[in-house]
Amino acid sequence: VDKLLGGVGLRRGRRHPTELRVGDPVDFFEVVEVRPDLLRLRAEMKVPGHAWLEWRVKSTDGGCITEQKAVF
Asked: Which of 11, 18, 31, 65 makes the best surface tag, with the fewest CB within 10 Å?
């Protein structure tokens, strides 16, 4: 379907195999912000409105806490 309609599935892969950069594709998402403690992805699939996935990592005395948020 993507080949026929020119969808996001036609895009090439990431520029680097292990490092994410703003603008890189991840499945049907695009990296919009990347920091050591944050990764934010914007959905490129057809959804009503907009959708994002976000992960945050916070250091604690005993290790770390990972928070995952889906916004749509």
From this structure: 18
Residue with tokens 């990431």: 14
Q: What is the DSSP letter of 16?
A: S
Q: Where are the domains of the chain?
A: 2-71
What are the residues whose beta carbons fall under 8 Å from the beta carbon of 40, sequence distance 6 or more?
31, 32, 33, 34, 52, 53, 54
What's the CA gap between 30 and 50, in Å, rounded? Answer: 12
CA gyration radius, the chain: 15
pTM (2 d.p.) = 0.75
Q: Which helix (H) or strand (E) holds 4?
A: helix 2-5
pLDDT digits (tens, 9 = 90+) for 42-56: 999 888 899 999 999
